[in-house]
Amino acid sequence: MAIGLRTLEVDGVALELKVVRKRVKNINARLHGKTLSVSAPHRVSVRELDETIVELARKLVRRLRADALNSDGGAEAIARKVAVRFPEPPEVNEVRFVTNQTTQWGSYSPQTGIVRLNAALRQMPPWVLEAVVAHELAHTFYLEHSPEFWNLARSVCSKTDRARAFLEGVTWLAAAWDDLPPVERSQLVGGGSD
């Protein structure tokens, strides 16, 4: 049973890595605080082990972050507050911030009552979160973005149009950030002067 110790950085998180080779079928990993403990069969190559460790560490760090994101219950309170404004309130059983939702701001499953929100929304003003929840719940009544859909969303959240413009700006900036000259970047983060 050989034990290897080293430091591994995954998604900006520094982890102490403990690897033990022993008689197991598969590579297993557990995260305890900032220590990643891995057990691996003797037959697995160092290259395969290293690749698998990074993959498992990413999954565990993301799960840890998702748990932390969802721990305060504030988003669930907002979602329930928004739901009761509908003529026929959709059921909200759970609200989750997720890190794997990269092409949309939110989703809602009427079957489970689960609202999923892009984790980036957690850093945005509450009225943006409220508008995204209203948007997702409005899809319970209208699947498409028809005039009736937008009227319902606006009746439930008066800041729907403002939040939509805000999110379009955030999306544009995220896509353009790397191409902006440093001077423009500094102006956008408050480092510039008029």
Automatic annotation (TrEMBL):
From what superkingdom does this record's organism come?
A: Bacteria
Q: Name one Pfam family in it.
A: YgjP-like
Q: Which InterPro entries match?
A: UTP_pyrophosphatase-like, YgjP-like_metallopeptidase
Q: Where is the YgjP-like metallopeptidase domain?
A: 98-167
UniProt-recorded name of the protein: M48 family metallopeptidase
